[in-house]
Amino acid sequence: MKSYPLLALGATSLLHAGTPAEEPTITPAPEPWIKPTLDIRARYEYGSQNTNTLDSSNAFTTRERVGLITRDWYGFSAMVEGEFTQAIGDDYAVNGNQPNVNPFNPGQTFIADPETNELNRAWIQWKGYDTTVKGGRQRVILDNAAFVGNVGWRQNEQTYDGIALTNQSISDLTLFYSYLNRANRIFGSDARGALRSFAGDIHLFNARYEGLKNTTLTGYAYLMDFDETAANRGYISNNTYGGIISTKLDNWSFRAEAAYQTDTDSSPANVDDAGYLHLNVDYSFAGCHTFGLGWAYLDEDFVQPLSTAHAFNGFADVFLGRQVGLVYNPGLNDVYLSHKWKTPFWGVQFAQFFHFFGDNDTDFDFGWEYDVVLSKKFNDNFTAITKLAFYDSPGPTGKTINYAPAFDTTRISVELNYKF
Fold first, then answer.
1. What pTM, to 2 d.p., does this model score?
2. How far from the centroid of its chain's Cα atoms is residue 64's Cα?
3. Is 22 part of a structural domain of the chain?
4. Which domain holds residue 160?
């Protein structure tokens, strides 16, 4: 009888043999209430125009964005961020048109990376009921940034003062509205007038629907009534209405965008309504190559003052002033070819673009451009980019090309980016 407890104990031991012990539950450490943010970029950029009046430029600049962002608390969060750019050497023109903006050798080719120390972002945000409301100085990028962007290519990014609301209560539909009263531009804290900021009443409406298979539909209305300044005299004010359709079919991708622009109360009397069209088709194969064909058309007087203009119509930036509207836009046709390649060499990605330019009729007599971009992402924090752009101008002569950029332009840049 005394052996029964021993037998029971042995049976219990056999039943539990090989059963893994339960791992202790580890409670993750709580997210800190305030986290630092850091975004550093070092860049060398070379710029040259084939003219006797401007020398080439060599700009070596570093930029730091340092900030703090809070943890979500009952839907509320906040952020503050400073932006600081330094120039190592002064062998470039920060702004050739207004040399009071950090006048590094105004007789040299323009490179828009001035030294500056400024408040980049400072906002308070609330999220709840499928809605996000953000107020303060903030980054706004809509669609592909052709009309509203942060000009992220330049060291000092473009930010906005105002309030933005995003709602996703309806399945597959994103509604966005923003009222802004100032666009803080890329020319730094010492800039003046329209180079420092575009002030006025800016209403941005955007609706994106993704409920169709492989297809996205977007409609927008961007109403921009800017204060008149000596630089634009109301020329950049506009009411723009447009739509986008993008779709994918097997290895093909299509995107079509059309917009129509009308005057505002502050627009000059001689500015007419204008149209915009951008078509693009891409074909991918072998898992690493993508070839594209595109056409961008800007009618006379069509302007995009808040756009990331560097991303369109060539990386040499020879048409940038007319795109933004700080100079008269006679119209532009841009037919381009693209090739993107995920190379087997150390994860390097290669992209090249050919542009053929003309005015807003069928004469492609504004010259051509060839661009190359190499990029390497080492990890989630560290990226390197090299970019080359060469624009070949038809020259300053000839009646039909009076508005073509008059000089060949070369730009080369090498940059390193780190952020967490």
1. 0.89
2. 18
3. no
4. 33-419
